[in-house]
Structure formats: structure tokens, C-alpha cells
């Protein structure tokens, strides 16, 4: 079994980044540095092992597309639901 993805904190320095694909990486948590990338417009987190999303996802005000399908999510942060984001999601029962 392959190890889960481990991203460096320096990822947050990529402030010009618009698209970040972290799908299919066996992640159990969203790295804090991801929520500091305020210019992201597309974030792909699908097909991981996420059980929740951090409340800090609300910092991604430019986010227009978020793929979170095929994870272990039960709920979404209330601020995320209020954002004008195209959610591609399938919550697991």
C-alpha cells in the first residue's frame, strides 16, 4: 500500500496558482497550506480518504470548482455551502 501524499508548507507560497489537482492521493486531511492559496479557482480533492474539510476552506474566495467526490465525507463546512462554488460531490452514507 502506497503512503499518503505529504505536501510541504511552502506550497502556500504559490499564490499565483489557479488550479490544484490533489485527487487520487489517499489524503486523509487537507494540508493547511492549501487553504492559504487564495487565488485558486479549481481544486480537485476527489478520490482520497477525506472525512471532513477544514473550516479554513472559506478562505478560498475565488474557488469556482471543487471536486470532492469519492471521499468519506459526511458533512460540509457551512461556509462552503454558502460559497458560489460548483461542488462536484457525492456524500457517502
TrEMBL record:
The lineage of its organism: Eukaryota, Metazoa, Chordata, Craniata, Vertebrata. SUPFAM superfamilies: L domain-like. This is Uncharacterized protein. One of its GO terms (cellular component) is cytoplasm. Keywords: Leucine-rich repeat, Repeat. SMART domains: LRR_TYP (SM00369). It holds the Pfam family LRR_4. InterPro entries: Leu-rich_rpt_4, Leu-rich_rpt_typical-subtyp, LRR_dom_sf, LRR_domain-containing. It comes from Periophthalmus magnuspinnatus.
Amino acid at each position: 500500500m502506497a503512503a499518503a501524499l505529504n505536501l510541504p508548507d511552502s506550497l502556500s507560497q504559490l499564490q499565483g496558482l489557479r488550479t490544484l489537482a490533489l485527487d487520487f492521493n489517499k489524503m486523509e486531511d487537507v494540508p493547511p497550506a492549501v487553504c492559504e492559496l487564495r487565488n485558486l479557482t479549481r481544486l480537485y480533492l476527489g478520490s482520497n480518504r477525506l472525512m471532513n474539510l477544514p473550516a479554513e476552506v472559506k478562505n478560498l474566495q475565488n474557488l469556482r470548482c471543487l471536486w470532492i467526490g469519492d471521499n468519506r465525507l459526511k458533512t460540509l463546512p457551512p461556509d462552503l455551502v454558502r460559497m458560489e462554488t460548483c461542488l462536484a460531490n457525492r456524500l457517502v452514507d
